[in-house]
Structures are given as structure tokens and as C-alpha cells.
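Technical annex B. To support the medicinal chemistry partners, we prepared a structural model of the target in complex with coenzyme A, based solely on the information shown next.
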Amino acid sequence: MPPMDIVIQPATLDMADSFRQALDVVAREHRYLIFLEAPPVESTRNFIAQVLAKGWSQFYAVRDGQVVGWCDVVRDERPGMTHIGRLGIGLLPEYRGLKIGGRLLAATVADAFQRGATRIELEVFAANVRAIALYRKFGFVAEGRKRQARCLDGICDDSIPMALLKDEVPPAPCIEQIQVGEKQLDGGHE
Ligand SMILES: CC(C)(COP(=O)(O)OP(=O)(O)OC[C@H]1O[C@@H](n2cnc3c(N)ncnc32)[C@H](O)[C@@H]1OP(=O)(O)O)[C@@H](O)C(=O)NCCC(=O)NCCS
């Protein structure tokens, strides 16, 4: 499948069900996400409505009108923490390893920084080497290690908190410009 078939576009409410289906598939793998299944339809719609109303960042990878991946940055609203955004990302299994994750991450990180975030953080399971490689490529730095952070299905895994600061963003990992709907964003950098 040529990656060209995939469009990266900002979240819209009409894609809520499709986004939820993609989230549900990845959550039910029990490997990568904290969620073990997607939240109910109504909660998912409310979440997207909040993304739109509060100016958070969410982008979808879309193929033939269906969401095959997503990336979001949700802003912290607590006093003293509003510069922080928390990043989540996922692709349906058959769309992994095609660099779509990098396109999603670039669009979402650039958008979050443009909207005022100056620290983007996440937590990744230590066994998730592909995600860790992607985050490092974009300049995310590991900030420690939580030992046996999750024990699920008979397997314990550590988790690694990582963060990217706006003023420490390295040179663009992907030089090429990416198309995001109607507007152009560069590889996650100003
Ligand atoms: C994590 C995820 C978003 C990455 O997106 P992707 O499009 O599959 O990633 P890419 O194809 O761009 O690969 C990312 C990098 O990891 C590298 N990589 C792939 N498999 C690897 C492996 N087994 N070991 C080490 N590095 C690996 C790739 O080579 C690539 O680096 P490069 O561009 O320098 O070559 C996607 O795989 C996914 O959805 N995984 C399941 C959900 C998930 O893990 N979400 C994150 C939770 S924190």
C-alpha cells in the first residue's frame, strides 16, 4: 500500500465513530495503550468536542474516509501546568512501519507548539521499541523509568516518561514538507 493514500487531517466530530473504532482496535491489543478498550461512543464524541472547543491538537491519518491512526496533544489545565500537553498516538496494525506515525507526530506537535504548549510529554512502555525510536527521532528525551509500571496478561513492563521542550526541538527529522489538509506544516518545527 503506498503511503500516498493516507491523508493527515485535523480532527472533526464527523470522524468520531471511525476514530473510536481505530482506538478500540489498538487498545484491545493490550500492548501499547493504557486503555484496554475505547471509551463509549458518547465519551469519545465529548472528547473530540473538547479538543475543538479548547484548542487542543488532534490529527487523524485517513484512508478512504476511515481513520487508520490518530495523534493528539491534550493540554493540562491545572495552575502552573498549562504549558504542558500530553501526547497520545496510534495506528491500526496494518498501517505501522510506513512512516505514517512520523507524519502524524509532526503535524500534532507543530500544532500544539503553535497553540502555546512549550512542553509535550508522554509515557511509553519500555517494550515498545518502535514508538521509542520515533519519539527519540523527534527529540523527545527520556526522563527516567518507572519499574514494573504495568503487569497485565501475565507480563510486567516498565514505562518511560519522555518529553519534548519547544525550545529544545532539534533540526527537522523529516526534511520533506507534509500536507495537512489544506495547510502545510513543516516537520514539527518552527
Ligand atoms: C508507534 C507508532 C505510532 C509508530 O508509527 P509508525 O508509522 O509505525 O512508525 P515508523 O514506521 O515511522 O517507525 C518509527 C521508527 O522506529 C523504527 N523501528 C521500527 N521498528 C523498530 C524496532 N523493532 N526496533 C527499533 N526501531 C524500530 C523505524 O525504523 C523508524 O525509525 P526510522 O524512521 O529512523 O527508520 C505505531 O507503530 C503504532 O501505532 N504502534 C502501536 C500504538 C503505539 O505504540 N502507540 C504509542 C503508545 S506510547
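Notes passed to the chemistry partners:
Strands lie at 7-10, 57-63, 66-75, 84-91, 119-125, 141-142, 146-152, 155-165, 178-180, 183-185.
The helical segments are 16-27, 41-54, 100-114, 129-137.
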